[in-house]
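F.,

This is the one I mentioned.
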């Protein structure tokens, strides 16, 4: 794999990320490598530039990485994260090693990890109503505004997780959860998390879910603070669909990788399934293996 053009997606609110993007541009120019830069939240710009890009490097924390991954879901380009946040489970490189790692990558001294992503479908008014209505947007689609008519369907991409949860008021919701055509449970809970293996170290883990090897292909289904439930978390195959119906709720939301909250109503259904094409992450030579990285990152968390 020849690296002729590199993109840098950065968090414009982190001064260190802005400074590092300038250093990166200078590094590339000295070596005759084409480069471009854009804030990670400017998805349209990223998608346009990625069509002629060999590698996208993300400068920031996990949130910055997840915003950039949304663009990569549309244009298949490998990703590398440079950690400028606090924990940075998605980043293989710390800022101090930046130039050395760039040299390794340009020389082809790396391998590719494939990560399973998620597609979420919000079916307004339930499955029957959605099937009778025109389909909504693809992975980057947005839900209709509150109060919109039922029967609409929107699709959303996530690398980490899709969460169905109560709103700002401390009132639990009732969810019917199915795996394919089998009823798993009716949860009275604050919410439900459907995570990818990559997202298993995030919100799902905080809610009691297992940590899963990030290169595996599974969906992790974990209720949030479920009342009197014997089921705490289940792991299902990538060929299965997780379906969550909102049975009762004062206010409910769908959160996609924590970047946006989409209001949903009683009767709406959220379906989550594995995306067939993986997201490709760059692993430079000498990068910490996942389980060593996990041990190191957990040690940094406040007790």
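My design for it:
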């Amino acid at each position: 794999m020849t690296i002729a053009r590199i993109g840098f997606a950065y968090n414009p609110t982190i001064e260190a990320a802005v400074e590092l993007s300038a250093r990166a541009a200078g590094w590339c120019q000295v070596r005759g490598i084409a480069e471009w830069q854009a804030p990670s939240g400017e998805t349209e710009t990223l998608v346009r530039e990625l069509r002629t890009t060999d590698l996208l490097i993300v400068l920031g924390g996990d949130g910055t990485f997840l915003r950039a991954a949304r663009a990569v879901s549309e244009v298949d380009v490998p990703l590398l994260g440079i950690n400028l946040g606090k924990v940075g489970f998605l980043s293989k490189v710390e800022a101090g090693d930046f130039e050395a790692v760039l040299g390794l990558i340009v020389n082809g001294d790396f391998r590719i990890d494939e990560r399973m992503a998620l597609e979420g479908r919000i079916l307004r008014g339930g499955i029957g109503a959605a099937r009778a209505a025109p389909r909504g947007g693809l992975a980057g689609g947005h839900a209709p505004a509150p109060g919109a008519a039922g029967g609409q369907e929107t699709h959303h991409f996530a690398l980490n997780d899709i969460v169905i949860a109560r709103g700002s008021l401390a009132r639990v919701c009732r969810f019917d959860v199915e795996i394919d055509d089998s009823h798993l449970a009716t949860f009275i809970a604050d919410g439900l998390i459907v995570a990818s293996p990559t997202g298993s170290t995030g919100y799902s883990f905080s809610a009691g879910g297992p940590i899963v090897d990030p290169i595996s292909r599974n969906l992790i289904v974990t209720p949030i603070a479920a009342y009197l439930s014997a089921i705490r978390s289940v792991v299902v195959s990538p060929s299965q669909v997780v379906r969550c119906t909102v049975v009762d709720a004062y206010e409910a939301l769908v959160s996609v990788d924590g970047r946006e909250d989409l209001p949903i109503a009683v009767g709406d259904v959220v379906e989550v399934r594995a995306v067939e094409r993986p997201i490709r992450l760059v692993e430079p030579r000498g990068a910490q293996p996942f389980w060593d990285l996990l041990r190191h990152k957990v040690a940094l968390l406040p007790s």
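The first strand starts at residue 5 and ends at 10.

Talk soon.
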